[in-house]
Amino acid sequence: MNAKYTPTTTHGAWGSGNPHLIVSSESGHQNVPLDRDLVRIGSSREVEVVLTGLDALHAEVHHDDFDEYVLVLHGPATTSARHQPIPSIGGKPGEILRSGARFVLGEWAFVFMREEFADHGLPYGGRQGGEGAHEHGQPHRPDYTGSHPVITPEMQSRAAR
Fold first, then answer.
1. Is 120 left (phi over 0), alpha (psi -120 to 50) or beta?
2. What is the pLDDT of residue 147?
3. Cα dihedral: 29, 119, 61, 30 (round 10)
4. For the whole model, what pTM was predicted?
5. Which of 42, 51, 66, 118 could join 16 in a cystine, given CB atoms 3.0 to 4.6 angstroms apart?
6. 19 CB contacts (<8 Å, ≥6 apart)?
């Protein structure tokens, strides 16, 4: 008999879960892997994600020591969350991205994606009921403060198995 695996935690290995941005506009879409500790977005040739119509440095996505991906804005944007100081990136105002988080910079729409097993959100598939529902806790987050290896596609593929 094959027992179905039920995840009880969303703490995967540091950088696992294929974190990426889906970037779209009227002309189509592309996937941008978040495979660095800092991915800058703007119109300058100095940034990692070059898009027309944006400020030279419009936004950044930081991969912090807690294995979170944090959006920091430098130009106008539409987001669904209020940005607040994030201690892990020096207190800059930002938004911790969860899988499905959406933001818009100019004519470009972005969606953050990361496989659920590594997203650090709610365990057991998220919220199960109404206001009075009991949420099961999950173990404390692992200590990611050691050296962070560069996550290669091969490593992500192995971690997802």
1. left
2. 52
3. -10
4. 0.70
5. 118
6. 33, 34, 63, 69, 112, 113, 114, 118
